[in-house]
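Course exercise 7: structure representation. Students receive a sequence record and must write out the corresponding structure in token form. The form below is the worked example handed out in class, using Peptidase S74 domain-containing protein (391 residues). Read each field label carefully; the graders check that inputs and outputs are placed in the correct fields and that the protein name is recorded exactly as given.

STUDENT ID: A-19
EXERCISE PROTEIN: Peptidase S74 domain-containing protein
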Amino acid sequence: TTVNTTSDIQVNGTSYNLTQLDRVNVTTIGTAQASKALVLDANRSASNIYNLIIDPNGTGIVCSTLKFWNAAGTASNTLAHMYYVGVQEGGATASQAVVLNSTKDYSGIRNLSCSGTLTISTSIATPSITCDTITKAGTITLSPTTLNLNPTTLQIAGTAVTATAAELNAVDVTAGAAAVSKALVLDSSGSIGTITKMTCTSIRSTTTECQITAGTALDTSAECRAYPLCITNDTDTVGSVAGISFMIDSTVAPIRCGGVGWDNTNGQRVRIGITNQDGTWAGYPNSVYGGPYTNGSNRRLKTDIRDCPHGLSTGMQMRPRLFRWKSSEDTEPDSIGFIAQELQPLVPEVVSGDENCPEDENGMIAYPMGIEMASITAVLWKAIQELTARV
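STUDENT ANSWER:
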């Protein structure tokens, strides 16, 4: 029953080292033990293996699937093992699992489809998504605090957007109000205001009425809005055919229209003057040629109506004069009329202006004395009536 030996034992001519015989002395079949042979149980299973090292030069583990078991002893998942062999960390490879690199980055995905919600959350101040194309059949809703797009070409509905972001910001304006470095957008009535200066080659109106106001209102009384307006050409010399400052129908001339407000002494005066080359006012000429002019004479506009005191005696003291204007050319004919200073003592009601008004730097008188010739007609007619009564 007992064999004692201090050397190897031979069985059928084969020597066996008895010192290794204890390795087959397994107490529990199917359970791995230290320094013991691994003996499978009846189900060809073995447990309690701590490490299993496979020679990479061999054929590996030949198995169609690997089953992962949970603590309860049931299969929790089945994975195709080839998806996890030769994976490149942080880079997409066809038919390979997605494994992030050490910085949790991943690149190389061609198409990413999401049927639910894709939420990107990060603690950095300026997170970003880098891709060539984002496509969705329905509506794409973006609600970031700041959306930073840096495409080589930005297209909307297939049309390339050539404007820069700064140029697009130019249309962020209030309609009808001009703003610095912004586009001009008309309001609902087709108007725009607060323009300080506008330079253009031409202004044309296709409507029956065109209104241009400039500067600050000089008179804001009821039913009246008077604004200073100067139309000039800064390129060509004012006065030449190419450098006209003002056009009325087919008549062109470098003129300035200036009006003096209402005053009790001289009534309302409207004057037409000339401009310098830069468009500034030069003065008023001593003669104005125009078409028919009609004085208002409605009784409803008048009060304190009396007979004219000036008649034959006044008319006999009037001195019709032949004279030349200082501004006249040598080829122009002489003029006939009255001298305001001579007529003022006789019929002061028809004389206006200031005798003591100084001349400006151009030698022009700002408020020259003038005569209302239509009123003299009443004086002359009174003289005719007196002469007729004497016959």
